[in-house]
Description:
The protein has helices at residues 25-31, 44-47, 54-74, 85-95, 110-126, 148-157, 200-212, 218-221, 228-231, 236-240, 246-263, 269-294; strands spanning 10-15, 36-42, 79-82, 98-104, 130-133. With 301 residues, it is α/β, with parallel strands linked by helices. A five-stranded parallel sheet has the order 3-2-1-4-5, with helices on both faces. Strand 4 (98-104), helix 5 (110-126) and strand 5 form a beta-alpha-beta unit.
Amino acid sequence: MPKKNSKSALQVVWFKRDLRIADHRPLSCAASRGPLLPLLVIEPELWQQPDMSARHYGFFSECAVELRAALAELGQPLIVRVGNVIDCLTAIQESDGIGGLWSHEETGNDWTYKRDLRVAEWCRQNGVTWTEHRHDGVIRNLKTRNGWAGRCDMLMAEPLTDAPPALAPLAGNTNLQVLPSASDLNLHDADPTQRQRGGRSLAQTSLTSFLETRGEHYRSEMSSPITAENACSRLSPYLAWGAISMREVAQTTWHRQREFKQIGGKPVSNWRATLVSYTGRLHWHCHFMQKMEEGPPREER
């Protein structure tokens, strides 16, 4: 099938583990090239994988609801579809034509790895260019770990990407479809009331409270289950689903480090130790994802 004119045909931004509009390069780049369809596909088969549950879906749904509201403020709400992502892309291609598919690179589980291979093949067969952007420290097709940490820091130091100022509404995509419930996806395990709630606003609140109050004794209190609940950043689920970007967390942490360096002296010694330790663990986050990127079969061994 011949390629569509990518500068005039529909640009599809596929949201996966990047449920935000801030520091979202695929969204910004796609918006500069033509009409944009922000797409979230709820894949029932993904949610039946052994590492998924109702509590995961509850958190994900809360992030998605806030994302939909943020996109609606720009002019075009999130389009939600339920099913196989290739079927969804095929329907869009047949009805509107796809000028380009945009997303962030994803390092997930074996299921998402194989799903992305199928999507890449669909794009080749249909003449659709799929552009993936990095959004963490993972480097694809890495031949050696030498210099990896420095390359990771370089990416984290790049300027944050602003959200598009506005998105033109799509006249033919008024069927937004509601998010299915956990029970709709046959997720019937418990979703505890005390779990963390999802959404970008809560991610920002957690980051701020950690860097301004809760994290002062992080280095000495992070290993105890009694103290870690309060002393740790509690950003893991927000990073996992992309409600906040790793780049934003790293740069905000570095800014806080510079503030304490200017203050100096014993009164801020705990904070300076905290932030040195925490930046190291941000590296660890990406380091172990890099291991899965380089060897997906590790999940099964």
